[in-house]
Hints:
16% strand, TIM Barrel, Rna Polymerase Sigma Factor, Chain: A, disordered N terminus, 25 strands, 4 domains, alpha/beta
Amino acid sequence: xxxxxxxxxxxxxxxxxxxxxxxxxxxxxxxxxxxxxxxxxxxxxxxxxxxxxxxxxxxxxxxxxxxxxxxxxxxxxxxxxxxxxxxxxxxxxxxxxxxxxxxxxxxxxxxxxxxxxxxxxxxxxxxxxxxxxxxxxxxxxxxxxxxxxxxxxxxxxxxxxxxxxxxxxxxxxxxxxxxxxxxxxxxxxxxxxxxxxxxxxxxxxxxxxxxxxxxxxxxxxxxxxxxxxxxxxxxxxxxxxxxxxxxxxxxxxxxxxxxxxxxxxxxxxxxxxxxxxxxxxxxxxxxxxxxxxxxxxxxxxxxxxxxxxxxxxxxxxxxxxxxxxxxxxxxxxxxxxxxxxxxxxxxxxxxxxxxxxxxxxxxxxxxxxxxxxxxxxxxxxxxxxxxxxxxxxxxxxxxxxxxxxxxxxxxxxxxxxxxxxxxxxxxxxxxxxxxxxxxxxxxxxxxxxxxxxxxxxxxxxxxxxxxxxxxxxxxxxxxxxxxxxxxxxxxxxxxxxxxxxxxxxxxxxxxxxxxxxxxxxxxxxxxxxxxxxxxxxxxxxxxxxxxxxxxxxxxxxxxxxxxxxxxxxxxxxxxxxxxxxxxxxxxxxxxxxxxxxxxxxxxxxxxxxxxxxxxxxxxxxxxxxxxxxxxxxxxxxxxxxxx
Length: 643
């Protein structure tokens, strides 16, 4: 058993990192920092881990141990400032670390201003969130950001100030507490790859302050930028060429995304400590989950693409270890729209406990367009199961565009040329393909290269404007997958009542050049008013999704994330099994017909199960020994008993 660091004193003549940390804590306690047994127990556990991560990142610096000690002291101060209510939540979730894997979890995401006008509007919406069954609410970027150059809130000027149009930090803290009292966890974005060029740190860097110039990747001439750009790719070439922009004083600063978003220099431990402080501040406001934005880009190294480097994972793990010390209930959700193999590398209890599932999302749309589930079934078989203690956040669409993130090598195994297939999908979803039902809008369309991504609400991409009945079936079919594959199903709020594209987006200041605003409509009041009328598209979509959520919450097999593949030998019918956690004597067999025609599955398909089954959604008895016919776009969740 390790001895408690709370009573241990440094040994004379030793100057290892542990001793430096303990000495720093002793000085702080002499100055009034209270000792806390809970913090000390966690320090015993996590200090070796944090040291092992910090040393490779910063060990070449003579002051790395002092930097580590300052970080731990910072965590101790933050823990002391944490409210008793949040400390009680920490203890509750430490006792139940798999709380977020419950089959009762249901997520919603929205922009505060567009959905509810303000944080007070969000608070007034809590009764509706309860009606819908939400347990997880992601409020899109809401911190202070310059207008019109905010990138939808992703250019942060202050992590400690709410955009005044939305409310105040005090209101956010109060909202978090009220949501928590209703069983709803608050999720916000932590934009930690870059800040706005109007952030206080950036302003000081721009003025020539050497301390804050080291917070960013700033160079006096083009020598180093040219060297980095030999390997780093352009992300927004239409905004600026390369990865660097010229500052007013002639220096060059790294800006991976827009010109007004300056990349932070995590090779500087002062930056790590500064951002850890912002993270812990948000945790102490009552934030439950941080969406870690642009995780693939946070570490730069000459001679590499500066994406998905090992040090990016070390940084995330180090941030995670800091949170285990000072806010142990806080979770991370990774956002990495990269090769599927790279996405999976960020998912770990010690790194990001949650992750968006962009591959599943993209392949749901691919299956709707092709009426062929081969790529989606392959992905579920190969790439769905992730480490214990983690979960996917599964969704049909998000605030962002749809990119076709499947691996070319996976497609090639099925005889699909990845480049050609992406061009087809782009054509299909922007209604350039004969017979397409979709009403999408191209994002960053490049006719010369064929590169394009897709904007559009779920309803518009499913054709609601033209064929409402079939579109409703597509909407529900698409959602049946994230609601049953395991993890947290996430709804873009408004989609649950069939909101369509907002083609007036281009007339809003700062939005005209970004087609993604077409699928970020304002609150669709008319659709919400119709949600209780199942004869309307809004009511039919709402009733279907509510039924899925209710059944999911009452079905133990749908907890956790484990998925077992199931072959239907029919390219139009997706199937998989959910054994639950721990495995039960029964399983749920999910079936989904992505075809526009009825599909028959012979009795032999189900020979591994007892003949009697029940469709949980309709509560109808089903006999498997006579085979099964699925209607066009029909989905079933069968409770079956393996033989």
